[in-house]
């Protein structure tokens, strides 16, 4: 039977069996803590000295916090109870100094700790972002983008919160706990035992609650990641959602995911909300016990009033850190889990260039495929690209044709080295591709895609993205050559118009002209073009064709061709089918052959 009842109609989400499994798993995984903590320690780096200073300050403030009640006991027993006032001012002065120092040490430790935490989080965040830039495309293929964003934001935020506040609190709680126990034992072992009676109750209450909350918090993080993923997808793909009238279905799916987050959030917060209440109750019980036992002992003369006051104060100081530890437990757990997930991404192997030669190599643009085979998924029976061989001379244009899914885009992706080939090799100017640094290859290769991606920045910056050090003149010349200059001037702020995310306010054709300008600025040796299939008005279409011809002139170009005209003009035609290159050569040769290309042409299916 599920043990969580169903108030407000919420379904139970964690069963007893789940908890048993999870608890076992957690015990087995305890060693991960050390790994995560030692990696965080490395990130603290040059602020380690400051962190040690913070720890020393925490020790000082814990000691001062113990000393205060001791002085109050003396004031009561030696002065107030005996009505002696000589010297009272001195001891009260000392008490004030103790509390002033206590405040100063506490202020300093939290001030320094925030600095350390912010620096560490900055490093963690930058490290993760840097690492993401170096990960291969295949890594992103396998993951939902929203989930990755959740790690960049939620997980890092959890670690940040823990470092900002929980770290000091946990350390100071442990110290206070030990210090108070020692002082209480010195004062009265009997009263100490009475104070400690409450501890097992606290321990079991805590264990009961945290076993449930840690599982629930994990569920909540997962549900949040999924929901973020969906939001990200629907926002970036909102045109598709609208075009296919999928709003209702998306709303339903969103409602399911949102409901899941609500349920997990409800239970996680309900259970964790029990912690302070239960602890408060046990605290009060402990306080009552200590006061009652102290009263009886004082009645028989075993203890002074001052000692009872000190003791009740220490008893409170003893249970407060227990409370704090209980409260911080979940935060720390979820921060460590968050840090672990962040480190897991940082451990993903990045793209590494084997050789450092050819750093400044200027590509001529000769491209050779030698028996190239490639699998997206190693478990697939058939390769996506199978034994493909061809040679394209520098400056030539090769048109790739074939049915959808034939492997045309994959050939382009392999040319940009987004993926590594599994068999055979790709040679650029006779140099095996893996011997060329990726930067050398990619900085001299440009993509012009069907649906070009534009960033939320000015038109000028979007064009300059092709070559960051391009001058304003170079940008404008490229825009003129790309037939984009005229429409840019008509935009509200010309070249300084800020485009909204992905160029929402300009037409598809204009986006393409901008992406051609971007490629022109980059002045690449190799061009990878995916011809647009969407119908664009004839005037813009002509402008695009003209701009593309200028762009392709003198460069090796691979075009996924959808227009007969483009194919006709190409020097070479590659006919792809099921990942194989079934025909290749100049148009006349293929027509004479009367093979697949001839059939495609006569059936006008390209
Ligand atoms: N990232 C990926 N992960 C796994 N499989 C993929 C991936 N991208 C493409 N594929 C698969 O590889 C095969 C070839 O796809 P590719 O995109 O190269 O075809 P294409 O000829 O360009 O098709 P289209 O003309 O429709 O764009 C298809 O079966 C496709 O499902």
From TrEMBL:
GO-annotated molecular function: ABC-type oligopeptide transporter activity; ATP binding; ATP hydrolysis activity
Record-linked InterPro entries: AAA+_ATPase, ABC1_TM_dom, ABC1_TM_sf, ABC_transporter-like_ATP-bd, ABC_transporter-like_CS, P-loop_NTPase, Type_1_exporter
Alphabetical UniProt keywords: ATP-binding, Cell membrane, Membrane, Nucleotide-binding, Transmembrane, Transmembrane helix, Transport
CC terms in the record's Gene Ontology section: plasma membrane
One Pfam family per UniProt: ABC_membrane
Domain ABC transmembrane type-1, chain residue ranges per copy: 52-334
Keyword hit for Signal: no
Transmembrane feature ranges: 49-72, 84-108, 193-210, 281-303
Domain ABC transporter span(s) in chain numbering: 367-603
Organism superkingdom: Bacteria
CDD domains linked: ABC_6TM_Tm288_like, ABCC_Glucan_exporter_like
Membrane topology: Multi-pass membrane protein
Subcellular location: Cell membrane
Name the record gives this protein: ABC transporter ATP-binding protein
Originating species: Psychrobacillus soli
Organism phylogeny: Bacteria, Bacillati, Bacillota, Bacilli, Bacillales
